[in-house]
Amino acid sequence: MSIQAMLSDDDLKIRAKMQEFVASVPRQLLLDMDADKVRYPQEFLEEAGRRGVLGLRFDPKYGGAGLPWMSEIVALEEVGVLGTSLGCLYSLVSIVGEAIHQFGTAAQKEKYLAPMIAGTLGVAEGLTEPRGGSDFFAATTRARREGDTFYLTGEKRFVVGAEGADLFLIYGKVEGIDDPKKAMTAFLVERDAGVDVAHVYGLMGTRGGGTGRIVFKNTPVPVENVLGGEAGIGNGTAVFNRMMIPERMTSAGAAVGMGRAAIEIAARYADRRRAFGQKIRRFEAVSFKIAESLTLLDAARALNFATAHAIEAGGDAGKIRRLVSESKKFATETAWEVVNHAMQVLGGIGYTDIFPVEKLLRDVRLITIWTGTNEIMNLVIQHEFYREFSKSKPKGRNVEADAAGAEFETEKEYNEG
Question: What gap in Å lies between CA 62 and CA 263, rounded to an integer?
């Protein structure tokens, strides 16, 4: 592939390891999940844990591999070929694990992070609420404290793993704190504490993960299960901002894998299918779709890699937020376009279940919506650009002055009237 020279030895090793793992996933599991015969494939996580491919970025002390973001992006592309459901369950260890790894107490890491990475503890995240989608701070879930216990009341929807996860990362506002950003707190809620699954959604795609709406009715959560313990009260905003990195980068990484899987199916088909006396790949209408798809995937992959390096390097949080949003937006929209190209190349047979492209189409549609819609990504991108641009001083050539009429300043009207 064109990216080979960009990969380190660790990246190549994890890619080979992930390819072996992905190849081992039973075909029947994928079929049963898409048919909603499976609600939560715990065995998938357990096998991933046995093979040591979960929690790649986390401290080896807790079972992680201590690898950089670049290696995880490589791994995510491989797991993406399985579709959105298994890719999401795989990614939740990275997403929820990020919160615990960065903000958790030593006791929380031992109790929760280690078994998550081992694949023996299923995790989920409750972020979206029925009355609020992308508006995180409009959340109405409340936490009332009595002594060393908080009591949660509220609802979260679209929770992947609602039917099956053992541990939920839940955001709620602590009562008595007026500022919603200071009131927001992250809680680690065990299922047996009183997590009620009120509804399981029938989904267009991305099936088999037990996606549902969960309800808390004075659900008790001990203060030691506040993420970060006592010091974590009111720290939910910081957790949320940090969490948007793995939330969106896992989507971006897996999206490339889904697009790649679809176009490879289409490319093989185009090299075998004949019409008008020749292979259909000889027709420009077909070959140009293959070429455009490959170009888009290479561009999305390269942007993902660049963003991964930027995250590791640290620095300006706004710049990283912008790059993460660009990666999520571009990779997911690329996957959608590429899967559509693949279906068009296949023609009518692509619309049937003879090929998995129709499933990929149903799966990919969701990733332009979740973890912040791509419209929200646009808002973040332009906001962070203007924030940085407005503070920067011009460098290099002033191209604006090269216009023939540049000296007519009165023609450059900036104000009304």
Answer: 38
CATH of 238-391, picked from 1.20.140.10, 1.10.3720.10, 3.40.470.10, 3.40.50.300, is 1.20.140.10
Q: Which amino acid is at 385?
A: F
Structure tokens at 122: 């299923």
Beta partners for residue 167, in sequence order: 123, 190
Please report which helix (H) or strand (E) contains residue 19, including its range.
helix 9-24
Q: Per-residue pLDDT tens for 14-56?
A: 999 999 999 999 999 999 999 999 989 999 999 999 999 999 9
Can you say whether the dihedral through the CA atoms of 237, 241, 246, 249 is positive or negative?
positive
Q: Which residue has the tokens 């004075």?
A: 218
4-122: CATH topology is Butyryl-Coa Dehydrogenase, subunit A; domain 1 (1.10.540)
347/164 Cα distance (integer angstroms): 38
From the CB of residue 40, how many other CB atoms can be counted at a distance below 10 Å?
21
| 7 class by beta-carbon count within 10 Å (0-12 exposed, 13-18 middle, 19+ buried) | middle
What's the topology of domain 126-236?
Butyryl-CoA Dehydrogenase, subunit A; domain 2 (2.40.110)
pTM as predicted: 0.93
Q: In the predicted model, what is the mean pLDDT of the chain?
A: 94
363: number of CA atoms within 13 Å, CB side?
Answer: 33
pLDDT score for 139: 85
Half-sphere exposure of 247 (CA within 13 A, CB side): 21
